[in-house]
Design brief:
Helix content is 37%, strand content 12%. By secondary structure, it is α/β, with parallel strands linked by helices. It has one domain: Alpha-Beta Barrel (TIM Barrel). Belongs to the glycosyl hydrolase 1 family.
Length: 480
Amino acid sequence: MGFCKNFLWGGATAANQFEGGWKEGGKGPSTSDMLMGGTHTVPRRITPEMEEGAYYPSHEAIDFYHRYKEDIKLFAEMGFKTFRMSIAWTRIFPNGDDKEPNEEGLVFYDHVFAELKKYNIEPLVTISHYEMPYQLTKKCNGWVGRECIDHYVRYCETIYKRYKDVVKYWLTFNEINAGTMPFGGYMSLGILNEGTTSFLDQVDIPQLRFQALHHQFVASAKAVQLGHSINPDFKIGCMIAYMTTYPYSCNPKDMLKMQKQDQIHNDLCGDVQVKGEYPYFSKKYFSSQNIEIKMEPEDEEVLKAGKVDFYSFSYYMSSCVTEDESVTKTEGNILAGVKNPYLKASDWGWQIDPEGLRYTLNRLYDRYQIPLMVVENGLGAVDEVKADGSIDDGYRIEYLKAHIQQMKLAVEDGVELWGYTPWGCIDLVSASTGEMKKRYGFIYVDKNNDGTGTLDRKKKKSFDWYRQVIASNGEDLAER
C-alpha cells in the first residue's frame, strides 16, 4: 500500500518571498513590503514608511513576476502535479478597501494559471500568505479592525469568480495559528502597535491579537461558504504551522505543559476551522490572559457553516517542553523549545524528526477525520556551488527521503493524505530573516543576502532526485 495514484506531488512558495515586482502592474504596498532585510541574529525591521536606500527583500525577491514561464517549465520538468503559490492581495486590491479590483493584477495571475495548465499542473492557492495591504494596517491596525472581514471576502469573491474554472484547491490563510503568538502580530495579522520595531520584537497586546485572530476565523468561514456557492467543486482548506512537541521527561508536569502548549498553539485554530467552534479549553485560557473575544450575534453560526474541506499544515521539526529551566534551549519554526537528545539539528538549530511527521499525521487524522495535506516541509541549508557549477545537496535528499518514508507509513496506518508540497521548491527569501543564504529549493537562484546576483536558475542534485520520486509515485527514493 502506497500513495494514491492521483497523489498531489509538487512544491510550495509564497508571493511575498519569491514574486517580486512589488510596484509593477498597479500593485500596492503590503505589510511584507515594509520589512527590511535581517540576519539570523539581527531581526527584520518594520519601517512605518518606506526608507530611501534601504533594502527590502520582497521588492524583487527572486523575480517570479518576470520569470514565471521559466520557473513553471522547471517545475514541469520535475513532474509537479500541483504547485502551491499565493496570490498577492495588493495586486488585486492595492489598498485593501478599493472599490474595484486592479485588472493588471488579475491578468498576471491569468497568465500564471494558463502556464500551469499548459503543463497540467494543478494550482493550490493560498489566499493570504503572511501579507495584507499595508493601508489596512495604517487605517485599522490590520485584522484588529472588523472591517477587514468584508475587505477580505470581497477579495475572495473577486478571485473565486475570476479563476473558478482553473483553480480547485484553496487555502484561506497561511499558518493562521501564528496569530496565537506575539510573532504573528504583524506578520500574520498586520498589527503594528506603537513602539514595535521588528516583527520578532513586538509590543504585544494579547487582547488585540486574539480579537484579530477571531476576525480571521470569521473571514475564513465566510470565504469557505462563498467559495462553495461559486463553485461546489472547490476544495477549501485551512493551513496550520504544526509545532510537534514532546514532554522532555516522564515528569507529569512536563506532560501537562506539552498538552497545554498543543492545545493553544496547534489545536485552537484547527478546531475552530474544522469543527466550527472554539474548543472547551479556550474559555479558561482567555480568562487567564484577560482576553475577551467580542463576537457579533451571527459569528458562531458563521463559524459552524464555514468549516473547511481539508486540513493542510507545515512540518519542519519537533521540539521538547519541560518545566526545568536549566535544560538547553533550541531554535525552531515560530515556536522554539528545548533540545531533544535523540535528534540531530539543521544549521539553523531546527531539530530533524521524520518520525514526528508520522506521529503528527496520525494525531491530526485521529482528531479531525478529514483529508490532510503536507504543504510545507524542507531543509534550510547553505548550498555551495562547486567549481564545475554543480550543487550537491545530498543532505536535502536525505531529509526529504526520510520524511516521505514516514508519510508513506502514515498512509499505511490509514491516514487519508492528498498531497505533499515541500517548501521553497525554488530558492526564495526567508520570511524570518529576509536572507537568501538559508536555501530550501531544488532549484538554485543566484542571489545574495544583500540583493545582488544575476537571478540565474540552476538545478541542484535534488532536482533529478525529486523528479524520480514523483515519476515513481514515491516508490523510488534512492539517491543516485
